[in-house]
Amino acid sequence: MLMVSTDRVVTKTIREVKGLVTGSVVQSRHFGKDLFAGLKSIVGGELSSYTEMLEDSKRIVTERLEQRAKEIGANAIVGLRFEMSAGQGSSELIGYGTAVIVELRNSALYRAIEKILRNDSLFCGYWWKLKNVVCF
């Protein structure tokens, strides 16, 4: 499923807005790993156990968003955002966006633009500035 943080997709048309979708997960920290992370924070360096927990949370939230979007008949999510909060002994990750139905624009112009987007980002920025369209 297509999931983007932008409000639109240049080469696709939003045919129908299905609504808001959300996904969240709350995970508790492992006491042993938490103790080790506390020691590691004194000497510096990446807290890999927290990084793994965050990546796992992101995967779970993304799967839940996709499932909820499919349940209401959407094939894409636009305006995707993530927010995280950490509490004593746990962390929460929330993802939300707008579920939509998109379809590929079939005109030759949009196929040419899509080719430009893939091959020439400098020209892309100039072209889209002229047309008042966001290039990503």
From TrEMBL:
This is UPF0145 protein IKC_06409. Belongs to the UPF0145 family. It comes from Bacillus cereus VD184. InterPro entries: UPF0145_dom_sf, UPF0145_YbjQ-like.
